[in-house]
Structures are given as structure tokens and as C-alpha cells.
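Hi Prof. W.,

I finally got the ABC transporter permease prediction working! I wasn't sure whether to trim anything, so I left the full sequence exactly as given:
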Amino acid sequence: MIKFIARRILHTIPLLLVMTIVIFILVDAMPGDELTAYINSIPEGEPRPSYEQIQQMRLVLELDKPWHIRYFEWLGKALKGDFGVSLHYRKPATEVVSVLVWHTFMINSVALLLTFLISIPIGVRSAARKNGIFDRVISTSTLILISLPSFFIGLYLMRLMAVKLAIVPATGMHSVISLVKGYDTKADEIIDVLHHMILPVLTLTLVGIGSVSRYVRNAVLEVIHQDYIRTARSKGLKERLVIYKHALRNALIPIISLLGIMLPTLFVGNIFVEAIFSWPGIGLEFLYSIYRRDGAMITLIIMFFSVASIMGNLLADLLYGVADPRMKIE
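And this is what came out:
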């Protein structure tokens, strides 16, 4: 197991190196740069820097150097944990991203847990009763959820629960009044944050249920007519035991593959959902960073996305051996 993990990590090193080159070239190829975007964001009426000052700032930020020289300088610093300074926040990009990742993880972890807890029983029951009333209702419902974009579901839930019913806050992570006055206790702050999490978590859960439940249904249907399932039934085992102990266990491999793909979303975030509910996560910040041409933030966030995806695939490979001991990892 240890040799397998070490070998997989060594295989990812060349991939990460190529990935850094591609990311750096793409960020550098964006029209304009972070200095130009920063100057253009200065409100009218406030003093703007002169041409000489702008050229001096370009020298300080080393924007006048060719991209390949800046790449190797950036790579050397990145290997030491220095991914540059955000011109907008005027602090290291790692400090900003570390806080935003936690905010994204808060809603995505709960949504992913709820998605699988709800989708697996629904998918298994739908497969066990193929072409029945329950299967038809679930198939139609999940197809509708898949067809609807996440921003539409989010806006509808906001209109229903935050505007009409007024039972949950519409946007943000904290109440404005609480931020101004402060919280009496830490428990009050936690409750307030949980209250603001309801809408984004519910939106992400509904978006995930549509695809995951259909995926589970198809995975179970592939094994439910196998010989060993018929043998288990012929032994007089209860149908529930046959489905959940024999069929579902052998259908876990494709489900684990899906889990490996979805695990990186714990840290990546959904840009549309975070933008709709003004949730201060990494997905929303990525959108703002592109608008601001904040090269340090864009490069670090994309690198974080890439590493999270690779780690998700590695974890899926490890879980294969746990789900099916016949699959030798080596």
C-alpha cells in the first residue's frame, strides 16, 4: 500500500510540473494585467498614478520580464510555499485562499454527505423496483433536477424560502446586525452561520441528488441480474439482504469512481451557487480574481483545483481495494 501511494505521488510530479507551465501561460495570456485592472478600479475623482509611476510599479512587480523568466522565478518561490502576493488584498495569496477554502468546505462537505445519504437508498430502491411507480417517479424527478441549472434552483429556493416564507436569510455568511454589534457567545455565531448555510447547502444537495441517484441506480442494475444474485435469492435470502449486502457491495466500484470525482468539489466550490448566495468561498473569489486580473490568486486557485482532483483520484484508487479485496492495488 505504501509503495503504491509513493509510486502514484511520484507519477504526479511530472504532471504537476506540466500543469504549472500550462496554468502560468494561460494566466499570462489573459488580456491586460493585474496592475492595469487595479488602476482602472480606482474611483473617479481620486488621484491616478502618472505614466512614470505606472512604469515604476511594473518594474517593482516584475511585469516587464518575459513570461519564461517570471515562470522559473515563480516556480522557485512556489516550491518554498510562496505563491506570490495578491495586489488586491496586499497580502500573500496563501493567507487569503486558506480562509476561503474553509468557507467552501463548510457548505460542500455537508451537501456531499447529504447527497450520498439520500441518493444511495433512492438509487438502490429504484433499481430494485425497476419500471415500478417509485422508479418512474424518481427517474422523472432526477431527470428534472439534472436538467435544471444550479443557479435556477438556487434562485427559486431563495425566492420561496427567503422572500415568500422568510424563514432563512437570503445571502451572506453572517447577519449584518450581528457583524456590527458582535456575537454574545461563540454558540450564537455558529448558529448564525448554520442558518445562512441552509440555502446553499440545500441547493448543492438537490443538484447532486439528481445525478448521483441515477448513477447508483444504473450501477445496481448492472449487477442485479448476475448469477450470484440469482443464487442468493434461490437460497431464500430476504430481498433486502440480497440487494444491500450482495448487489450494492459489488456496485460500489463505479460509485467510488464517482466519489473520487466529487471529492475535489469539497474544496473547489460551485461558482454559481456561491455567487447567488454571496457565500465567501473560493469559487466566488476565483470569479472576482479573474475580473481583477489578480495573477497570484488565479494561479494559486487553479493549482489548488488541480491538486485536489489528483488527490481525489488517488483516494478513489485506494478505496477500490477496500470495497473489493479481489482488486489488488499493486
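DSSP finds 16 helices and two strands in the chain. Does that look reasonable to you?

Thanks,
D.
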